[in-house]
Amino acid sequence: MSGPEKLLETEGRWSTTMGASFPGERVVFRGKDLFHDLGSLSWMQLYLYGITGRIFGEHQSKLFEGIWVLSTSYPDPRLWNNRIASLAGTARSTGSLGVSAAMAVSDASIYGGRPEIRAMNFLLRAQKSLDAGKTLVDIIESELAKYRNIYGYGRPIINVDERIGPLHTMAKELGLADGPYVKLAFTIEETLLANRWRMHMNVASLIAAIAADQDLTERQFYLYMLPTFIGGIVPCFSEANERGEGTFLPIRCDQLAYAGPGKRQW
Q: How far apart are CA 93 and CA 246, in angstroms?
C-alpha cells in the first residue's frame, strides 16, 4: 500500500514495537523492562540490543567497544570533523551543536562512515562470488574495473594502517579473530600484495569483517558505527571552548590568494 490509506493508518498515532515510557512505573525497551531486565547490561550491550534486538556477550561487547576506542578516537583538531568541533568551540557554540555538526560531516565518502559500510558490502559480495566458484583475482579485477577502488584497502595518507595491529590483537585475545570474514579480509590483502595492485588493508575492512562475523547487517553496522568519532570530537571542542573566541586557526586577509573583483564602492 502506497496511497493515502497508508497515511490514514498512522494519523494521530504511531504503533511501535520498540518501547514506551510509563512515568512513575517502568520503561519498555524492545519488549523488555529497562530497569529490571536490562539494567545490568553495559551501555554497549544496550546500544547493540537497541539496534539488533540481540544481547551480545561480554567479549563481543568489549570488542565492539574496542573498535570505537582504537579506530576512531583521535583528538587531532586537524582532522576534518574535529576541525568543525574546534571551530564551534572557539565560537562559543553549545556542546550539542558543535558535536552534532562534527558528527554530521563524519558521514564522509572517503574518510568517514561510508567506507566501512562499503567495505562490508564488498566482503559480503566477495564471499558470495567465492561460493559461486570465482577466484579472488577475478573478484578483485572486476571490482577495480567497475569502481576503480576497493573499499577497505589502500589509504589516502599512508599505506600502512597503525590501527589494524592493536585491534586484531584485541580480537584474538577475546577469541573473536577467527571468523570467516576476518580471514577473508586478510586473504584479500595477501592477494592484492602478491599481485600488481600492492594495496594494504585499512582498518575499515577489519572492522567490517568483525561486524559481519558477529552477524550484523549492513544497516545495523552503520547504526553501530554512528557514535564512533565522538571520542575524538569532544576533546577538540572542549579545548577550543576554553580559549578566546575566534582563535582557532585564524587567517589574515593578506594571506588569502584572492583573484576576484578589486575594491568596490558600496
A: 11
Tell me how far CA of residue 264 lies from CA of 47, 203, 260, in angstroms: 57, 52, 11
Indicate the helix (H) or strand (E) that contains 22: strand 19-22
Per-residue pLDDT tens digits for 144-175: 999 999 999 998 778 889 999 999 999 999 99
CATH fold group of domain 113-224: Cytochrome p450-Terp; domain 2 (1.10.230)
> What per-residue string of b and e applies to 78-99 under the rule 16 or more CB within 10 Å gives b?
ebebbbbbbbbbbeebeeeebb
- Hey, CA dihedral for 57, 60, 63, 67, is it positive or negative? negative
Boundaries of every domain in the chain: 25-56, 113-224
Residues ≥6 apart with Cβ < 8 Å to 76: 82, 232, 236
CB of 139 closer than 8 Å to CB of 197: no
Other CB atoms closer than 10 Å to residue 49's CB: what's the count? 18
DSSP summary character for residue 223: H
Cross-strand bridge partners of residue 19: 29
* pTM attached to this predicted model: 0.89
Cβ(67)–Cβ(207) below 8 Å = yes
